[in-house]
Amino acid sequence: MSKEQTRALATTNEAAYERARRVIPGGVNSPVRAYRSVGGAPRFLVSARGAYVTDVEGREYVDLVASWGPAILGHAHPEVVQAVQDAASRGLSFGATTPAETELAELVVARLGGGTEVGGLVDEVRLVSTGTEATMTAIRLARGFTGRSLLIKFAGHYHGHSDGLLAEAGSGVATLALPASAGVPEPIAAQTLVLPYNDLDAVRTAFEAHPGEIAAVIVEAAAANMGVVAPLPGFNRGLTELAHEFGALVILDEVLTGFRVSAKGYWGIDTAPFRTEAKPGGWRTFSQETYLPDLVTFGKVIGGGMPLAALGGRREVMEYLAPVGPVYQAGTLSGNPLSVAAGLATLRLADEAVYDRLYHVSETLQREVSTALAAEGVAHTIQRAGNLFSVLFAETPAVNYAQVQAQEAFRFGPFFHAMLEQGVALPPSVFEAWFVTAAHDEAAVERIVDALPAAAKAAAA
Ligand code: PLP
Questions:
Q1: Where do the domains of the chain lie, and which CATH numbers do they carry?
Q2: For the modification N6-(pyridoxal phosphate)lysine, which residues carry it (predicted)?
Q3: ipTM above 0.90, yes or no
């Protein structure tokens, strides 16, 4: 154990929380880490490896947060850590361009670019440091490209914490039950039209009400910040057709889904020629037509656990960015060498076997969670999109934010704490997806499964 870990362990979690609250608002540096909706003190962690995290009291948990998505290979994968250490030994940050940034951009283009029968989604990539920056830049770029101002977003979708995107947002905004954030000036909020998800009629109505004014529609490729709510079949395609009909761009936000739900992201699933989906009473297969959004944003997995995100799109739009075009965007630490090394190593390791494992673990847990809740008579639906899933405490699947909010959310707190007590760390909100990793081996899965009956009993109470 390192000196830092030994020092950290010389405290209790409560003491660590007390101390943090004196100097950090709420004791956390991101509200989703607080246990506001489930109650109690957030666990203070000191290390993470594979499928496990360890807190300041030396307790180990099977982790289903995975750093909120990035850790598809599990925590501290030795080859990723080695890549970061090698990069660090050559210098932490140069403020100049490095060949590795080109390699990462090439890798993204190779996964999502031209050469497919549908053409390329991504010709060029700009690296930034956070998902918030990626979506913020994509929106500015769409506005610069179209010369229009208004933006459509969907209720319950989260795209980071920039001013215009916090209205009826998911993630921590949903967890804290905020309709919007204070501190966003009204004229800025008025530039965003918030519509119900999965409702193409509402989108058409908005375009008709604001002719020539809407620059872009931003949409999570599959919503996963109000719990998981997949787009209805054809929704993303219909949205793209409508936006293009009215001269607006589509920004597909794959910050959470990108490189996690498939080698490409949710777009890869959504545009596969055929898709088979579970349906009450059986399965159905339907053919799909493809669609091409104009810009796509990435984060989380692309940085392998380090601060890195990106936006990409077709050349014509991307070359509106400075220094080629008139839309300004910059960053002292953009394309940071350590982050790029972690991202490159992670994407290179993320092969078919990794995605197979993510799906296997996810599907096993979905089945076991459902069995445990059913055994206690708890009304629930497993909401899924690719290998992302969450539990909705309602009998009927939800397709939008209003339906998600109508669930028996009070059941999640006791469920969460019963899991935690048995050594399983879930995301501390019913409005978040559960994140599996390829490092969740059979032993880790078994520990989760063993904890479920008691948690289901707590949820039923
Ligand atoms: N977009 C989506 C879909 C996200 O899930 C998130 C974060 O959870 C963001 C954007 C913002 O990313 P970041 O937290 O890196 O700023």
A1: 3-64+352-460 (3.90.1150.10), 82-349 (3.40.640.10)
A2: 300
A3: yes
